Amino acid sequence: MHLDPDFAYLTYGDQGKKGTQISSNLDAGDFLAFYAGLKDISSKRLVYGLIGIFVVQEIVAAVSIPQSRWHENAHTRRILPPAADDIVVRGRPEVSGRFQQCIAIGDYRKGAYRVFPNLLKTWGGLNVKNGYLQRSAQLPGFVNGVKFYKWLCKQAPILLKSN
After folding, report:
1. What is the three-class DSSP state of 119?
2. By the 8 A CB rule, do 85 and 44 touch?
């Protein structure tokens, strides 16, 4: 099973352009916010919500991870060629995890799923046009990560170390 992120082990792996983007732009102490498209049980509409966060403990090349730890991430559970560009991010245990309840952040507008305008303003914006959230080769990033993180802390999400 490909669990990524894996909230039980607090790992997230990626490769190619996204892996390079992560390893080039993030350091220990930075964060990755995880979101997903979820179906609202009452309206059946798709809503985008934050589902977890990792404050980066370290970013390592997947090929450098010892076999005794391969079970911790989907990118190390498969055989990698020596030149593989897969990376694995490990989250700091005390401040990383899956949220007990998702935090709604966006819905469908202007032909795509996007962050709510009021949140874009509160967070200081994203580096993608108009809060675009759908899959792309470029991961969305916060223009002002500090503003986002302060907002998130005010939401007081309960962090779980489970999938």
Report:
1. helix
2. no
